[in-house]
What we know:
Helices cover 66% and strands 1% of the residues. By secondary structure, the chain is mainly alpha-helical. The termini are far apart. Keywords: Membrane, Transmembrane, Transmembrane helix. The chain crosses the membrane at residues 33-51, 71-99, 120-144, 177-197, 209-232, 252-274.
Amino acid sequence: MTTTVTTCPLARPTLRAVLRWETFKLRSQRRTAAVLLGAALLPIPVAVIIHGQARPPKDTLFGRFATDNGFALALLILGFASQWVLPLLTAVVAGDIFASEDQHGTWKTVLTRSASRGQLFWAKTLTAGGFATLVLGLLAVSAIGSSLLVVGHDPVTGLSGQIIASPSALRLVAESWASMLPATWAFTALAILLSVWSRNPAVGIAAPVVLGMVMQLVGALGGIEAIRPLLITTSYESWHGLLTQPSFIGPLVQGAAVSAVWTAISLGTAFVLLRRRDITGG
Length: 282
């Protein structure tokens, strides 16, 4: 009597399952908890230190009011965070999420779990984007909350000299922080591209920060008005129009469009590079 054994092919996991696995891996890393904790706590000592200064930083927007007004202090922290902090915090995960597979030689392992390269790419991308959104949210809540608690919530003077009542000021400050999201996603996508291209976590994390600094310096130069609107860092300054009278959102729309283009090009290039990669070596 002959027994016939039939084997069923392994079912391909859904994108949701792969995303859940990537999220689990991210949560299990100490670095993730450290970045989130830093985003939640770092604005608190910054608010205390600035409030305790005898002379306010008058060379920055809202700096002259930062020691006496909580809303101005939250906007001062926003200006600093958008220049140096956000690109770094987002790149810590996005710049490593692909390169770590190369570093540990685990590409063949993850691809033999029946997950396609496309599923892995989008799961890792969504994980990095979600992390960047969470970091920005924690940083915003901590900066606004600590500034108001330490300094107070009196009406703030806008960029046109108008007095903005506290309820409106809170809404505008929150909207200003939220306007950082498109540019933050763009830097996340850029870090993903560098992570895929370099296969090196150090390059994936450090290069977006360096490029952000270069963009800041280029944007500060004169005679390049045609180039400046095309930089990601210019989008980080588009919130200024919310604090004028009358307000204008043209720079916000333009900044969101520029960030979307950077995001699409970076992710598209990274996807093509990953699809064409030979992973037989690891």
